[in-house]
Amino acid sequence: LTLVGIIRSPSGNRALVQESSGTGYVVKKGTYIGTNSGKIVQILMDRIIVEEESENIYSKVSIIKKQLKLQKPPGE
How buried is 13 (Cβ within 10 angstroms: 0-12 exposed, 13-18 middle, 19+ buried)? Predict the structure, then answer.
């Protein structure tokens, strides 16, 4: 997934993400995305924070935070 845009509003921020196929989705805090069913926990001005559960070889589950950042326009 690629973060394409952020929509800021008093009622809650939204983000536009795009699959490699070109299909786009508007998502909000609490939406589950990605192949590991990560949950969007925060939408900032230039990125979204996604929490995913990860299980290690000892069956211990931990929470990993990942960021999807907005891409800078060419030339910046």
Answer: middle
d(C-alpha 11, C-alpha 6), whole Å: 14
pLDDT in tens, the chain (76 residues): 899 999 998 988 999 999 989 999 999 999 999 888 899 999 999 999 999 988 888 888 888 999 999 987 776 6
What is the residue type of 73?
P
Whether the Cβ atoms of residue 49 and residue 31 lie closer than 8 Å to each other: no
DSSP state of 71: P
What distance, in Å, lies between the first and last C-alpha atoms of the chain?
22
Number of Cβ atoms within 10 Å of the Cβ of 69? 11
Give Rg (Cα) of the chain: 14
Q: Which residue carries 């211990």 as its tokens?
A: 60
pTM, whole model, 2 decimals? 0.81
